[in-house]
């Protein structure tokens, strides 16, 4: 059983480069890392027709099932596997399938609201906010939403002006104050290299959470290790 030793939260606006930073800073730790997209915890809207789901404000905190995210993160931190929901951006809805996620040494929680909920934020060992100019972010978003998420340009522009931009200013940008580190211009190589090194060190066993992990494991196995020195 693995008790995660290092939990990282990566927040930032849409298109800021959160997923890219998450991938780059953890690509050298192989199977020791699990990525949890906060987007997977959008509420299940199966009871609404697609026309109504298209009009939901997905950039408001109330769009998320926070209780499920808290519980699942707690379970992972205590060494239990979870059934993580999956999300379909084209259908604006949760998928019927869930993914079994086993706890690993490093957990990366990533999403626009990764630093929003107090209880979730308390569970993080390192809080990052990726900061990228709004014009760069909207250009990236247009490209992604039209190509990968099957949206029309007019719809993407309207959604940006109606909800994405104002919610970013009201709710997402202020979470920057919860960050330990602000990463300018997304995946910049200096920040990526430093964070990569930090994560490697944590995986190799130097984190404070390892003390907690050892004691939980000892409790569970009923053993007590006495150090010689
Ligand atoms: N530093 C960067 N330079 C150039 N393109 C980038 C950079 N970071 C991310 N991108 C590109 O921008 C798009 C959005 O990045 P992504 O990491 O998915 O953002 P987010 O997860 O914050 O929405 C992707 O196509 C990605 O390849
Ligand atoms: O059904 C949905 C759910 C979410 N969105 C948009 O997604 C982004 C968050 O994803 P990023 O990868 O961080 O960009 C958020 O701004 C929502 O507006 C959506 O369009 N439809």
Automatic annotation (TrEMBL):
| Domain Phosphoribulokinase/uridine kinase intervals | 7-187
Keywords of this protein's UniProt record, alphabetized?
ATP-binding, Cytoplasm, Kinase, Nucleotide-binding, Transferase
Q: Where is this region: Disordered?
A: 206-229
Kindly give the Pfam families that the UniProt entry links to this protein: PRK
* GO-annotated molecular function: ATP binding; uridine kinase activity
Give the UniProt family note: Belongs to the uridine kinase family.
Name used for this protein in its record: Uridine kinase
Q: In the record, what lineage is assigned to the organism producing the protein?
A: Archaea, Methanobacteriati, Methanobacteriota, Stenosarchaea group, Halobacteria
């Amino acid at each position: 059983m693995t008790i995660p030793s290092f939990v990282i939260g990566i927040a930032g606006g849409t298109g800021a480069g959160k997923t890219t930073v998450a991938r780059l800073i953890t690509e050298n730790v192989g199977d020791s890392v699990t990525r949890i997209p906060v987007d997977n915890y959008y509420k299940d809207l199966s009871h609404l027709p697609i026309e109504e789901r298209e009009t939901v404000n997905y950039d408001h905190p109330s769009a998320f099932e926070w209780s499920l995210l808290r519980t699942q993160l707690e379970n992972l931190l205590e060494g239990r596997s979870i059934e993580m929901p999956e999300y379909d951006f084209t259908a604006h809805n949760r998928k019927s399938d869930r993914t079994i996620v086993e706890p690993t040494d490093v957990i990366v929680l990533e999403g626009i609201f990764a630093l929003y909920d107090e209880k979730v934020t308390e569970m993080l060992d390192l809080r990052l906010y990726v900061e990228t100019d709004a014009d760069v972010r909207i250009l990236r978003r247009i490209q992604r939403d039209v190509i990968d998420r099957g949206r029309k340009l007019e719809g993407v522009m309207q959604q940006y002006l109606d909800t994405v931009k104002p919610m970013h200013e009201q709710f997402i940008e202020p979470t920057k104050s919860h960050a330990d580190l602000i990463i300018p211009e997304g995946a910049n190589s200096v920040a990526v290299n430093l964070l990569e090194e930090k994560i490697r060190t944590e995986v190799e066993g130097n984190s404070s959470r390892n003390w907690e992990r050892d004691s939980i494991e000892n409790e569970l196995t009923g053993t007590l290790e006495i150090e010689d020195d």
